[in-house]
Design brief:
The two termini are 26 Å apart. The protein contains 12 helices and 23 strands. With 389 residues, the chain is α/β, with parallel strands linked by helices. It is globular and about 75 Å long. 30% of the residues lie in helices and 24% in strands. Helix 3 packs antiparallel against helix 4. The chain has 3 domains: 141 residues, Rossmann fold (3-Layer(aba) Sandwich); 118 residues, no CATH class; 85 residues, no CATH class. The chain has a 7-stranded mixed sheet. The structure holds uridine-5'-diphosphate.
């Protein structure tokens, strides 16, 4: 009856379901939560403000194909994300850039540091903080130490519960020093929010007669893996399984639990038109939360109140909170490799997405990965050639 089962209705699952269903495949989609869109899920709250229930998701990409693809399912509201970090009580733009220099240092010092940056790096370059720390130039060394201490170190410890040296470069490179004056958090060519939100976007993708969606259903309720074989509703399933959940769960955690970092998302209503100086303000050095996001500044709406979100990082505990970020320790990588090897026993299972591939994918990365998977399988999918993607 079904050609394919897709576990998880987040971005990875939605793109694959949409592509394969449009090519005529019959898809059964199984989602544990009561809603689609995974961690991109958004909804209008009691204040009439569109909030991101699982933390701020800002869409940005340099890839015109991804932009074009998503544009089939949504209109856009142009949006360029801006973040400030509170340094010594003052919110200043991050990524730390040439404007930030002049906001935190007296003019003579800021000019000197700016000259040192421009002498050593090309204008427009992003330099990971740990790379700048290795600089031989005394002025740059001073700047690197300052940014490391004021923006990076304590935020990172809070966010990950680990010292920065135990965290993968893929994470630490995400917050660079920017040799330029662009205050935007991202510099990509396409930056926007789906006009009616991500949930609406994903619902549009899944609105296809070839997709049967089962919400509120754990995959273990309907399927089982046994000796290289998949059983669906108790019968052997010869079709394809695309799995976007946690890989350890697919194999009953037989090689141990893959560690994730979770976040306690605490929403608050504030009786004010606007609460803070930027859509997101980071608090590297004080408080137990890492950042506050004000959704009205992302999705503008008239309201005398505003909704803010404080993010309190915490340990992930299965069944208690949500797995948000894979923690890339050597031990975790080794366990992931074992699960990956186990996957190889099944010719018809593919693991895709942030959870299943244990990667810190951005939204556009996930979409790119899903689309390239579809492309690589053109042979098996009737009429996919009629699709441009
Ligand atoms: N980071 C930091 N200080 C900040 C913001 C980020 O040290 O003010 C570090 C921290 O380790 C964080 C990583 O950079 O986990 C990635 O930040 P990003 O804003 O990309 O995180 P996300 O939005 O994915 O949580």
């Amino acid at each position: 009856m079904f050609d394919m089962v897709i576990v998880g209705a987040g971005m990875a699952g939605a793109v694959l379901a949409e592509r394969f269903a449009s090519a005529g495949k019959k898809i059964l989609m199984i989602e544990r939560r009561r809603h689609v869109a995974g961690n991109c899920y958004d909804e209008i709250d009691a204040n009439g403000i569109l909030i991101h229930k699982y933390g701020p998701h800002l869409f940005h990409t340099d890839d015109a194909q991804i932009w074009e693809y998503l544009s089939r399912f949504t209109d856009w509201q142009i949006y360029h994300h801006r973040v400030k970090a509170v340094i010594d009580g003052k919110p200043v733009p991050i990524p730390f850039n040439l404007n930030t220099l002049h906001e935190v240092f007296p003019k003579s010092l800021a000019d000197k540091l700016e000259a040192a940056l421009l002498k050593n790096f090309e204008y427009g370059k992003k330099i990971p903080i740990l790379e700048l720390k290795k600089s031989a130039d005394a002025d740059l060394q001073f700047l690197a130490d300052f940014v490391y201490e004021k923006i990076f170190l304590h935020y990172t410890e809070k966010q990950w519960g680990l010292a920065p040296e135990n965290i993968s470069g893929a994470v630490t490179a995400r917050v660079p020093i920017f040799v330029g004056r662009d205050d935007r958090y991202f510099n990509d060519r396409f930056q926007a929010m789906p006009k009616r939100g991500y949930t609406h976007l994903v619902e549009n993708m899944l609105d296809n007669k070839n997709i049967k969606l089962l919400l509120n259903t754990d995959f273990q309720e309907v399927m089982k893996l046994d000796d290289g074989e998949i059983f669906l509703f108790g019968k052997s399933f010869e079709g394809r399984l695309i799995y976007t959940g946690q890989l350890d769960e697919l194999f009953g955690k037989k090689f141990g639990t893959l560690p994730y970092r979770s976040v306690d998302m605490k929403f608050e209503t504030v009786d004010a038109e606007i609460f803070q100086a930027a859509p997101t303000v980071n608090y590297p050095n004080n408080y137990d939360f890492t950042r506050i996001t004000e959704f009205k500044q992302i999705h503008p709406v008239k309201s005398s109140r505003t909704t803010i979100l404080k993010e309190y990082p915490q340990e992930y505990v299965a069944g208690v909170n949500e797995p948000y970020y894979p923690i890339f320790t050597d031990e975790a990588r080794a366990a992931y490799e074992k699960y990956s090897a186990e996957l190889a026993d099944f010719k018809n299972i593919t693991a895709v997405g942030r959870l299943a591939e244990y990667r810190y994918y951005d939204i556009d990365d996930v979409i790119k990965r899903a689309l390239s998977l579809v492309r690589s399988e053109e042979v098996g999918v009737r009429s996919l050639k009629t699709c441009s993607l």
